[in-house]
Fold:
Amino acid sequence: MNSSKYLLGYDVGGTKIVASLGTVDGKILGTQRIENKDTYPDVILPMMVETSKKLVNEAGISMQDVRAFGISTPGPADIPNGIMTAPTNQKYWKNVPIRKFLEDNLGIEGFFENDANCGALAEWYYGAGKGCDDFLYLTMSTGIGAGIIAAGKLVRGTGFYGGEAGHFVIEQNGRQCNCGMKGCYEAYCGGRAIAQRIQEELKDQPNHPLIALAGGKLEDIDFVTLEKGVRAGDAYSLAIWDEMSLKNAQAFGAFINIFNPKKLILGTFAWACGDLFMDPIKKYLPQFCWKEMLEQCELVPSALKRDIGAYAGTAAAIYGLREKGEI
Ligand SMILES: [Zn+2]
Structure:
């Protein structure tokens, strides 16, 4: 058995891939970025192999010294078989057997997980979840996904869909969600959904201050524009923010009561907006969960922040090896 401490990791996103070389004890030795917007897999997969060889060479080791690799990808995916079936932001990637390709071309064992699960594993091994065996990591960005660690295990569910926390229905017959259902949590609190909603509601108000904050273009309004509107005291922005905070509290309250976690580790919005994001949620939370469990749960921002991708793949490899009892 290969007992080396080196691991390769890949975070496959819609605009870029971050490849990283790390160690089982939590160090990242190097990262490389591959542009991945509107690409074809038969071009990108060989580039991933070349990039990996470069990372390994630069660290002064050889591929035989690398124990395993891990891949973090957006869904939907065939997790047990390591296949990217139909990633929503990659129109030319269909049924791509990425894990097998890399295993065959690198000659090492690979592991494959969805990106929210990898985010949780990365925070567990390297970030805000260190030493904590009961927590949820929530992506809180364009969309909302969760990686759940319960009693020291990743909760995958029977069909590997566990953690789709952005799509539990929070409002019957509520706002249309991009997933096809109505009233999903993400339809109220995901960055893309909020931007879509604002653009729709302001389309007949060309002089609205939020449009000015987006540089004069309605279609450029995004979550950052909303944050600016809130900080500037714009009444409309404040009302949207308040509704979002209430819905976030409703969702967090459900997670707290269902899992009794020690932590909720919150992604992008929490570390990018700080107290502006956290304080109103904390104000509303007592309405949505029991006091005992609220007292036992700490709300913290991601510690890895924008670098989480560099840790996501190697974290999947560490968890995979641990599950097999190999480390
Ligand atoms: Zn949905």
